[in-house]
Amino acid sequence: xxxxKGYAAPGAKKALGPFALQRREVGENDVLIDxxxxxxxxxxxxxxxxxxxxxxxxxxxGHEIVGKVEKIGAAVKGFQPGDAVGVGCFVDxxxxxxxxxxxxxxxxxxxxxxxxxxxxxDGKTPTYGGYSTKIVVDQNYVLRIPKNILLDSAAPLLCxxxxxxxxxxxxxxxxxxxxxxxxLGGLGHMGVRIASAxxxxxxxxxxxxxxxxxxxxxGAANYVTGLSDSDQKKLAGTLDLIINTIAAPIDxxxxxxxxxxxxxxxxxxxxxxxxxxxxxxxxxxxRRLAGSLIGGIAETQEMLDFCGEHGFxxxxxxxxxxxxxxxxxxxxxxxxxxxxxxxxQSIK
Length: 348
Ligand code: NAP
Ligand code: ZN
Ligand code: ZN
Hints:
The chain has 348 residues and is an alpha/beta fold. The chain contains eleven helices and 17 strands. The chain has helices at residues 42-48, 98-102, 151-154, 160-170, 186-197, 212-218, 229-235, 252-256, 280-284, 297-310, 324-332; strands at residues 2-8, 17-23, 30-39, 65-72, 84-87, 90-92, 113-114, 134-138, 143-144, 178-182, 201-206, 222-225, 239-244, 259-267, 288-291, 316-320, 339-343. The strands form four sheets. Strands 3, 4, 5, 8, 9, 16 and 17 form a seven-stranded mixed beta sheet that branches. Helix 9 links the parallel strand 14 (259-267) and strand 15 (288-291). The protein starts with a strand and ends in a 5-residue tail after the last strand. The structure holds NADP nicotinamide-adenine-dinucleotide phosphate and zinc ion (2 copies). NADP nicotinamide-adenine-dinucleotide phosphate binds at residues 41-43, 46, 159, 163, 183-188, 206-208, 211, 245-248, 250, 268-270, 292-294, 331, 334.
């Protein structure tokens, strides 16, 4: 076994602290990654605090992982020691069901092996995530990081980036379309960058005016605070697609009314409590409400290459591991601009 250092949550109401863990030996298809950075996704907080139920403790969170290849197994092709690589929200899947065959492994019917807060295929070994110095992952679930993106700002692409890229592609966001992004947090700010790079006219819906300048720098064309009655009237029936990243229950109907006929709002945020929904905003213009989960491996690589071509990663605040608990509180309080990224050198 390979020794690694990490940080774990011992229980739902407890602070994260130092934790020694072991990774499996490098098998013939495995890649040993020396982790450099790991993003803090709001999902890490939901799970470490057991807000969705069913959390497994002790938990080493982290699914926005970037690092350098340290060692490869005998059958590994396409990765060499020293390469910059990434790992996202899952590290394996059944490889046999229709979604796996179609390359949408995130919807695997046999069950994806989550990067953390899950079980290995043996059903009894808990998985540990990226708040750690090393990880061993099968080559089919390892991504390549484009050379022109700094590693720290690449980390959030592995979850926040793909979670916005996938629905934008699936619902065919394209040049000239009007796209709404609800919530300018870790996910939302990537949505603005990616949708504007796709040529869309992006409107940001935020709960305060504080992020207006940043939204414009990220590529937004419009910024709406609080969605007042007059904004609701002005924008009714104008948008082609809305991606909702908000991690709190809100009045979905007010935003659905902003869509044109037959258009879709995609939920990606997962609030602890459900939002109420009236049927009228959907019925009156045959609008749709949908959901989307991260993205498959091939699509994640496509997204990384897209970001490389456009020369952007995330806007990040790099922190040492010991600041993780403070960082969690700041994310919940909406103070991060726009993703905390842990520098794993700080515990090596
Ligand atoms: P985040 O950085 O905390 O951003 C969420 C944003 O939502 C905040 O910045 C804020 O934007 C807005 N918001 C929060 N509370 C609000 C409230 N009470 N009313 C109105 N707006 C509010 O979180 P994140 O990392 O982007 O994650 C967002 C959600 O997506 C989480 O629930 C996470 O678990 C989920 N997620 C889903 C997937 C997926 O595959 N579907 C993947 C990753 C994460 P403003 O400051 O602009 O108002
Ligand atoms: Zn995430
Ligand atoms: Zn499968």
